[in-house]
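Try it yourself: sequence plus flavin-adenine dinucleotide, in.
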Amino acid sequence: MQPFAYSRPGTLAEAVALLEERGPGARVLAGGTDLLIRLRDGSLDPEVVVDVKRVPELAPGIRADDGRLVIGATTTMTEIAAHPVIRHEFAALADAAAYVGSVQIRNRATLAGNLCNASPAADTAPALLVHGAVVVAAGPEGTRRIPLDAFFVRSGVTTLARGELVTAVDLPLPSTRLASAHERRTRRRGHDLAAVTMAVGVDARGAARLAFGSVGPRPVVRVDDTATLGDRSATDADVDAILDRLLGDAAPSRTSMRASPGYRLAMLRVLARRARATALGRLADG
Amino acid sequence: MTASRVGDSPARVGGFGRVTGAQQYVADLHPADALHAKLVTVDAAHARIVSVDASGALALPGVHLVLTSDDLPQPVPRFGPQNRDRPVLAVGETKYHGDPVAIVVADTVDQAEAAAAAVRVEHEPLPAVFTIEGALAADAPLVQDPSLREGQALAQTNVLNEHEVGWGDLDQAARGADVVLERRYTFPMVTQFAIEPHAWMAAPDGDGIVVWSAIQHPYWLQRMLAGVLKLPLARVRVVAPDPGGAFGGKQHPKYEPALAFAALRVGRPVKLVLTLEETFQAVRRAACDATVRIGLARDGSICFEDIRADYLIGAYTDIADRVVGKGSYVGAGPYAIPAVRIRGRSILSHTVPSTAFRGFGNPQINWAVESTLDEACEALGLDPLDVRLRNLAAKGQPFIPFDTPCDGDWADSVRKAADMIGWGSPMPEGRGRGIAVGIKSGPTTGLSTSIVRLLADGSVVVYAGTSDMGQGARTVFAQVASQELGAPLDWVTVVMGDTAVVPYDQQTSASRSTVLMGNAVLNACRDIQRKLAAMAARVHGVEAGAVAVEGGVVRLPGGAVLPIADVVAASLGRLGGEITGLGEARKEADPSHPLGGSAAFFEFNCTAIEASVDEDTGDVTIHRHVTVSDVGKALNPLQVTMQDEGAAIMGLGHTLMEHYLFDDEGRIRNLGAIDYRIPTSMDLPRSLESAFVEHEDGPGPFGAKGMSEGALLCVAPAVGAAIHAAARVRIRDLPFSPERVWRAIQERDRGEAGA
Ligand SMILES: Cc1cc2nc3c(=O)[nH]c(=O)nc-3n(C[C@H](O)[C@H](O)[C@H](O)COP(=O)(O)OP(=O)(O)OC[C@H]3O[C@@H](n4cnc5c(N)ncnc54)[C@H](O)[C@@H]3O)c2cc1C
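Structure, out:
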């Protein structure tokens, strides 16, 4: 591991100033479960690591505010998976958070870290996309809100600008419940990086959205405007036809060792069917 | 103050330190003046070294030394437990990704790492081979220079050695077969993945050297270092703190010689701790491609087995050719078969040198043979359990004509496993069951010596050169001493792991230590008992033969029975002191035997599996995993169960998920924990049941046999058979990854299912 300076700013302004001044030479540290691996393997070599866990604006916590559920940047997966509102209103997110890593990892891994790392396999991304999450970013120019779909660019790259960091992620508390579920494929049951991730959300009017990851440079969200997926009486053939359309542009890596493209594409459909079934079940359960 | 008895399961000796982190592994040793080493490698599977420029590295802060083979005695010493073919550092060429060209020594680990990256190794890539086909191709580059293989018939090829054993007349036996099947099964490269990192430290020690190593065989290391450094054995001290898992990967020296030369050059301790990524490039199991021809008669008797097994070993021999020879040797299994031919070949390649790994060459061939037998049973509509029971060798039967006869009631283990899993009883929809057996030849030679000291207060010190790497050897030896000398376990200290202190032990491998070192400890205790009897007789003024010492007590004429602790001080007399016992256990070599010696015992295991397959995803769920081993006598039943479960779970690793993946340049793509998956607690079978059979028929203390590898031998064929029973797919390559199983199901549905 290359030596680096460590800084632990106590205010948002300090953190932003440091990030702006150092640009790519600085790296935010939250739980460190992605960052430390990359420091150790040498794929990242920052001059300064900026620990944001003492910045009050990024503090962990989940609260309702003006029709939205606001999740502080450093909220851990453990907290998210256990939160009653998330478990009911954003079930796919609770599912996803509960899948991440192992107990120890979930106790450290933060939601903002999962998104800012921008892995195509990030488990919380599909659920957050399905539920229309917005990333709240603070930077030298102040605060802005970035819809999650406009946040991811490709693996490791987001639309955060120099000097910006994520302070929170928020989700609209819907008037009509969107019941959702998350599924993923891994090589083993113990913690593993997903070869396919999939979240499906359906509401009582039959509207449905699905989002998936690990099959292209970034997670993507698709809307079913035919109301087929949300229709529990739809035939398998109807569902498959819609899935073919919604998943048509998935382009898994040809060179990945985690799974072949053929397997990933087949699993996308399997997971979509399963997540849909779970979501419909949850919708029925109320 | 009660003594522990064999057959009890007391708390693990040293266990508290292990689980609290108090135990000091090699990586935990931090002498104030220690320097840190890092290996320099090139990004090539096979390359000619043109030049090494260390000037940039030497100019970095904290750097003390960059050592290459040019700085070593010439010709550069070579070492290896079988063939001396591995140079201390690469000479002229590197032969696999990870083959060290130089070793860098600096004040800190980070400085050593930076310096290693700054060493400029100009090199020219050379053609390389990574597969059996590639290595055997007519135009394949030779991995080893024929000049190093003088006198070997195959020196002009990449076949390091061929091993053939057999008996009976195959052609004649084939005439009795109602079905003859030939099947090919492959087994990938996997790695030991000990949780304790491979770590070493070397330091000048007067006019000799001391080396700390997480090693299973401290005395081999001592001998090898003495040879390479040209020092008398008495000037080479190996300290071997208890390893944290080894599994064969820590049997033989790898980088200790380079480290020793570096330490002698800088005159200070030099420490090297491998990363997991480096460890993947240092130790692995040989891959195997086996073709099995089996003839089975309608009545279920096996007429013949004709087996070819090609093992892909690495660039240097290490102990791999022994693995091939010994593993393939029992390839026909625990059956009495009239005609058998087994041909095993070790094939060199530009890959990580393969070495010993729990099971020692058996899991690879057993997977092929037991699976082919399952296919033959299916072809004749026979029950795989019946066929196994029908063909098992009976106790005393010389099933391998020139070896130790069958030494267990093996059918008992098979019946027990079948009973436990409920063989033949109904199961939930979608499940299938499979059953398989495996044997392994135990140690073929051995020498263990032990010194035991009975101190004046009745406490005991046991010296045993075994490495306790988690198998619990300390506990078993302490139990033996406790039972024989009457001291409670916490009055027994077991001293291990220091060649300057502890007498000779050949090695910790082949599940031998309970048997061989156990006997040595037992013999040392009996030596003390004899001496004490004579001393007590003198004190009590009776004839020597009138006093008996056994099982921790002294029996005096007239019927008095006294604890040893109450007798020892008086018996020692005015000068006090202590009573020292010396014990030895030998397994003599037999030069005429194909393996150089017959089996001290056989490990026998039967594994039965109940599994289901998710047809949409290919996920395999193991609902029940039953393992039964024939252990002779469980000196410590809890430890027997732990070893059995551990071996079973390790077997699930290569069965379900583990394998090295290579790119076209011979790099390991899944280098490290992120993409090389081993089972976690969540990957365990829904139910794992381990049991054992005890007939006190082993050569160890109180009838014990070694048993730490058995449960790994037949996991893959049992799981494979269960998958076949559940989903009607035959998968002949490991691991059964979800994608591979899913593909097999797709093929089945397209009507292309396995031949
Ligand atoms: C063993 C193991 C298993 C794992 N399993 C999974 C899994 O199953 N699913 C999964 O999705 N992930 C998994 N991960 C990855 C990782 O745990 C998650 O991505 C986690 O959420 C990252 O959060 P963190 O707080 O640890 O991030 P860090 O490592 O601290 O940061 C990650 C990246 O985000 C940046 N960053 C962090 N916070 C901010 C912020 N507020 N503003 C701007 N940039 C920021 C950092 O600079 C860094 O580049 C696993 C990791 C490990 C080590």
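One thing you can check immediately is this: The interface with chain A takes residues 110, 113-114, 616-617, 656-657, 661, 669-670, 674-675, 677, 679-683, 737-739, 742-743 of chain B (CB under 8 Å).
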